[in-house]
Amino acid sequence: MDNLPFQILDQMIQCFGKCFYYKDVLESFLLSADIKPALARKYKNEHKYVWGRKLLQELGETEAGRIEQRRILTAFNNLRNLPDTNVSDREAGLSALRILKELIREYDLGFKEEKSITISRKHIAEEKSKIVLQRADKLNELKNKFTRGITSVDRQATGFDLEDIIKELFALFEIDYKKSYRTETQQIDGYFKFDSFDYLVEAKWRKDQPTETEIAGFQGKVKTKLESTRGIFVSINGFRDEVITQFNGHNSIILFCGIDLTYVLEGRIDLRELLNIKIDKAAQYGICYYPSNKCV
């Protein structure tokens, strides 16, 4: 089977990036096109545009792969609307999809749209449900690990477990997270990028609550990085009121406690949603700690 024209492949990549917000939905879309699960999620850790480019390039290397390319193209052609309602720029997504369909007609590829628009939607919904269930199972697994840590007498091991829990939790919500690492002069517990900002993470799981000096020390680490860098200080046992008051107005630092983590692990709130709310409160009102029970 011949390769798809370059313009078609390039526009498919645009659709990968513009028609989806959550990577889970993009994965479910690929599964609905009968792409093998291992291949559908092979490049999931990449940005969506890169994911699309690498996947289509790999598929283009074999006869069987080129057939799968066309399955994905057919799935795009069958869409009447964006498969992900969370897309921020809906018009850009619809425009990308419309351009792709026009190219299909221009190249006379012979794809026929499904008369019943419910077919592709049903497949996507089914695959998305599977992924949601898998996420729920993983959240439950992490919650059990977190619960065991509450009663553990080995506090050092519990601290390492907390790093693992945070990393795996962020991965579940499609946020790349780097565990603890050292610079020449500093120990950093974690790092992630979210909505164009860089975040350093300090994570504490002790019986006592962090002091003003500890949080100020972490704030000092944040200030040694680029201006776009912010800090997330995680204290499982919470913060004293006077410490919170001291850091209100310091928008470079946002506080998380064990209750916040529990709300996410129990599925009461999406991690991305919780981050957005806490960041908005810090940016708009200078509130460094906004409790999760006010977010749901």
Helix count, per DSSP? Answer: 12
**Dominant shape:** elongated
Give the oligomeric state.
Answer: single chain
Mean pLDDT equals: 88
Largest sheet: 5 strands, mixed
Total number of β-strand segments? 7
Which runs of at least 5 residues are low in confidence (pLDDT < 50)?
Answer: 113-119
Description:
There is one protein chain. The protein is of the alpha/beta class and 296 residues long. It has two domains: 6-129, no CATH class; 153-294, Trna Endonuclease, Chain: A, domain 1 (3-Layer(aba) Sandwich), CATH 3.40.1350.10. Helices cover 56% and strands 10% of the residues. The strands form two sheets. It has a five-stranded mixed beta sheet, sandwiched between helices. Strands 2-3 form a two-stranded antiparallel ribbon. Helix 2 (23-32) packs across helix 7 (118-151). The protein is elongated, with a radius of gyration of 22 Å. It starts with 5 loop residues before the first helix and ends in an 11-residue tail after the last helix. The model is unreliable at 113-119 (pLDDT under 50).
Write the layout of secondary structure elements.
Blueprint (H helix, E strand, L loop, with lengths): L5 H13 L4 H10 L4 H4 L7 H12 L3 H16 L11 H17 L11 H34 L3 H18 L4 E2 L2 E2 L4 E2 L1 E5 L2 E8 L7 H12 L5 E7 L5 H7 L5 E5 H8 L5 H15 L11
Parallel strand pairs: 5-6, 6-7
Antiparallel strand pairs: 1-4, 2-3, 4-5
Helix pairs in contact: 1-4, 1-6, 2-7, 7-8
